[in-house]
């Protein structure tokens, strides 16, 4: 992917293979003397037993510029939490494991619910939100990065390239979004991005006309990547979606709160592979099926907030237009895969397109039935305004959990 194309909407920072990883690391170490860099790892306990996370820790242990690593741990009991503390103890950086299911953290949840600030159901969005709150309560980081814990092809260069645009004091970027080709095991992956997001944005432009927001989202080469880095100043006003629209939601928040010149995308890897979600064709509450509905709702809500009027007729037309656009793009992906010696199952992918078309209609019906739905976790600024002691008490709860079980 070594090209130099710029789309004109957000800056694209390529890997032109003209510098090495160690050079970036040395520069970041210099920047970190005055601009502390921290990392968030949202994790399920099951990922501690997987193939990817131990290798990720091996790489992170060699990163010299990280100030702190904050791990959000979901779906763990007390014994598993104690194991997680030992598992992450090999990190040489200052690090903390937030046990989201601990009695102390559940008490923090209860305080939020009593204030009408429910952080939502357990999931990646809520996990990230609590990690961000912990990071802000520490008040000592200027840059925060986030990536998943299931990356099979992880290297520390990915992190360096991700944080460099927002850590470099001569750059004006507030948010950097990672991108990469989704290939692995001889296959072209990235189904949700290829078969849903790209064609649905193209279809929306045809159905509702030009929108700056649509052009903005279409500028990102991989809008569903789970890797991004931000300067911490915008974080208190960041609204994190509680459903599977997290990645689109963060980009939408950047669109709402930041100048276009403050956002960039950066190429962080030549190849990327991680855990693949099942399609879940028969169950719209899990897998790619659930993800497709949440992503569509997130886009529809943002467009409605900007003044777009949606009707059943528009969603019916959108479904048909999406289906045609997706099939046309599938021809491009098939040719691209074949030319690069990769496998692409056209029959299976057409079935996924049919599922996504039905889910676009379903997402539209959910939106029309409840257009005022706000599945966003409250901002940390609002939490602090409602309970000025909560963030400090959360720091104490995490410290007490570690003292008891570590």
From TrEMBL:
This is Glucosyl-3-phosphoglycerate synthase. Gene3D superfamilies: Spore Coat Polysaccharide Biosynthesis Protein SpsA, Chain A. InterPro entries: Nucleotide-diphossugar_trans. The lineage of its organism: Bacteria, Pseudomonadati, Pseudomonadota, Alphaproteobacteria, Rhodobacterales.
């Amino acid at each position: 992917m070594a090209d130099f194309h710029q789309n004109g909407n957000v800056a694209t920072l390529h890997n032109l293979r003209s510098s090495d990883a160690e050079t970036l690391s040395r520069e970041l170490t210099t920047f970190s003397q005055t601009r502390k860099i921290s990392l968030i790892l949202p994790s399920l306990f099951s990922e501690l037993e997987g193939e990817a996370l131990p290798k990720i820790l091996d790489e992170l242990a060699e990163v010299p510029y990280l100030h702190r690593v904050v791990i959000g741990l979901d779906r763990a009991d007390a014994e598993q939490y104690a194991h997680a503390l030992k598992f992450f103890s090999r990190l040489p950086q200052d690090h903390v494991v937030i046990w989201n299911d601990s009695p102390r953290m559940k008490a923090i949840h209860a305080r939020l619910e009593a204030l009408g600030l429910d952080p939502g159901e357990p999931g990646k969005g809520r996990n990230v939100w609590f990690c961000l709150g912990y990071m802000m309560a520490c008040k000592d980081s200027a840059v925060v990065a986030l990536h998943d814990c299931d990356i099979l092809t992880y290297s520390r260069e990915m992190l360096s390239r991700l944080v460099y645009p927002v850590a470099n004091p001569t750059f004006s970027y507030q948010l950097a979004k990672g991108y990469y080709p989704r290939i692995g095991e001889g296959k072209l992956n990235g189904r949700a991005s290829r078969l849903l997001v790209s064609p649905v944005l193209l279809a929306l432009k045809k159905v509702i006309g030009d929108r700056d927001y649509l052009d903005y989202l279409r500028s990102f080469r991989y809008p569903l990547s789970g890797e991004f880095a931000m300067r911490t100043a915008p974080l208190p006003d960041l609204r994190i979606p509680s459903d599977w629209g997290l990645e689109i939601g963060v980009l939408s928040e950047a669109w709402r709160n930041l100048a276009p010149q403050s956002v960039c995308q950066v190429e962080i890897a030549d190849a990327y592979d991680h855990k693949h979600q099942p399609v879940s064709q028969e169950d719209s509450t899990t897998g790619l099926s659930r993800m497709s509905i949440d992503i569509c709702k997130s886009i529809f809500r943002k467009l409605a907030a900007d003044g777009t009027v949606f009707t059943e007729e528009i969603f019916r037309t959108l479904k048909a237009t999406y289906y045609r656009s997706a099939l046309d793009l599938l021809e491009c992906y098939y040719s691209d895969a074949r030319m690069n010696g990769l496998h692409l199952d056209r029959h299976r992918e057409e079935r996924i397109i049919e599922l996504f078309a039905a889910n676009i209609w379903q997402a539209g019906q959910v939106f029309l039935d409840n257009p005022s739905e706000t599945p966003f976790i409250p901002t940390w600024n609002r939490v602090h305004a409602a309970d000025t002691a909560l963030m400090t008490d959360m720091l104490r709860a995490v410290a007490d959990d570690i003292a008891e079980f570590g």
